[in-house]
Amino acid sequence: MLSRLMGEITMNALDSYLESNSKRHLDEFFDFLRIPSISTDPAHSEDVDNCADFLVQQFKSIGFQVEKVATDGHPIVYAEWLGAPDKPTVLYYGHYDVQPPDPLELWDSPPFEPTIRDGAVVARGASDDKGQVFAHIKAFEALMAIDNRMPINIKVLIEGEEESGSSNLDPFIKSYRDRLNADVVLVSDTAMFDRETPSICYGLRGLAYFQINVTGPSRDLHSGSFGGAVDNPINALCYLINRLKDRDGVIQIPGFYDSVLKLSDTERQELSQLPFDEPAFLGEVNAKAFGERGFSTLERIGARPALDVNGIWGGYTGEGAKTVLPSKAHAKVSMRLVPNQSPAEIAVKFQDYLNTISPDSVQVSVESMHGGEPSVSDRSSPFVAASSRALEALFGKPPLFVREGGSIPVVSSFNQILGLDTILAGFGLANDRIHSPNEKFELDCFRTAARFGVRVWHEMAQ
Ligand code: BES
Ligand code: MN
Ligand code: MN
């Protein structure tokens, strides 16, 4: 009883620290968001590097040991506070890189000039993942300021290449294997179930990403002089794309579903009982339900694979008409994978299929871009229970366990290289427009994430 009372006093002190420093925290958050740390674009590599420096400064100022670790790509920020030898150790993971802001003309304010609109911070990276990372940093700051110590040992890994495939992260994890040793991993890079309902995500899809290049004649041709007598690479590309899935969204690549883990009846039952507002979810983006027959929307997103063309180009797309028969056509195609599919297995099957269906009137080549393994996490550990308690303390109800359709490839690496399970407790909202124009993170979500941060480490210490 006494300790519960003391716990409440500590929590009040921590919450009021967050409250009374909120103006400064927001200013610093804006500074973080102003750095255009677009990892995929080489023109921004200096910005990405500066963004890592910004984080190093943050960790220094709160009294964590920190280093900026150079990689063959963008730097990794690694920080730690290990002053509680009799307590567990948690590895916190996040990313400081962001998606490109394109298409720029669809933003209502510049993507790297954060502003507050309707109670939300609008900027690229606000929700994915700078806002969530920063809320945790401010929770660390509050704990260190009030108690001068953390309730638990913390290792922090914040990478700068998540949005571009994390290709240098596995080598880092392998070379830091011993330093990264922990009891569990915590990540805030997903969404809440809804504004009032916290969730813990226990399943993420993997990713296999490709570019298809189709080459026809050696140069662009007059479509009158040649049309009808030589094949057109854009038409050929469309023919190929059209054979990738049927009108129900069933993927036609032979063997594609071979290693898909079937949902158990219990899990289907659980998913069907989630208070999911499907009309609102689809209506918000003016979309109709679509997909494999016999599966619900939540199953299609969380537990079934998908294939999407992400971009397609070639020929003339400017104003007016140009009668041209193009020399080349391209498409980017991504596939979301579920356990136990692997990007390597899918790459072989995709390539084989394209080889069999490609017409010999054009040349077709496939480039394999980045990929990531799908993951499903343990739900029964005491650390999951501790995270649930922290969420319940904030929301007045326990979290729902959900699967999400996005990918965080490092989750599988933590499991395979370090043998660690990952808890995904995120504070975004489904309508945060991540990867889209006008990305936002609501101030309430930021506040909740920070208040979760101060609680979860205390709960895990028990
Ligand atoms: N935070 C997202 C992943 C995510 C999105 C999880 C939505 C749950 C719901 C992450 O930053 C992301 O965008 N990942 C990429 C991975 C890719 C670039 C390897 C993705 O899912 O496309
Ligand atoms: Mn993210
Ligand atoms: Mn992302």
Give the SSE map.
Blueprint: H1 2-20, H2 22-34, H3 45-62, E1 65-69, E2 76-81, E3 89-95, E4 115-117, E5 120-122, H4 126-147, E6 153-159, H5 169-175, E7 184-187, E8 199-204, E9 206-215, E10 221-222, H6 233-242, H7 265-273, H8 278-283, H9 297-302, E11 306-314, E12 324-325, E13 328-337, H10 343-357, E14 363-372, E15 375-376, H11 382-395, E16 400-404, H12 410-418, E17 422-424, E18 440-442, H13 443-461
Parallel strand pairs: 3-6, 3-7, 7-17, 8-16
Antiparallel strand pairs: 1-2, 2-6, 4-5, 5-18, 8-15, 9-13, 9-14, 10-12, 11-13
Helix pairs in contact: 1-4, 1-13, 2-4, 3-4, 4-13, 5-12, 11-13
In words, what does this structure look like?
The chain has 462 residues and is an alpha+beta fold. The chain has 13 helices and 18 strands. It has helices spanning 2-20, 22-34, 45-62, 126-147, 169-175, 233-242, 265-273, 278-283, 297-302, 343-357, 382-395, 410-418, 443-461; strands at 65-69, 76-81, 89-95, 115-117, 120-122, 153-159, 184-187, 199-204, 206-215, 221-222, 306-314, 324-325, 328-337, 363-372, 375-376, 400-404, 422-424, 440-442. A hairpin with a 2-residue loop joins strand 4 (115-117) and strand 5 (120-122). Helix 3 (45-62) packs parallel to helix 4 (126-147). The chain is globular and about 85 Å long. The site of one manganese (II) ion (MN) has 5 residues, from loops. One manganese (II) ion (MN) binds next to loops.
Q: How many strands in all?
A: 18
- Count up the helices: 13
Strand order of the largest sheet: 1-2-6-3-7-17
Bound molecules: ligand BES, manganese (II) ion
Proportion of helical residues = 25-40%
Low-confidence stretches: none
Radius of gyration equals 24 Å
Beginning-to-end CA distance, first to last residue: 15 Å
As a percent range, the share of strand residues is: 15-25%
Describe the main β-sheet briefly.
6 strands, mixed
Mean pLDDT: 97
Overall 3D shape: globular
**Strand-pairing-aware structural class:** alpha+beta
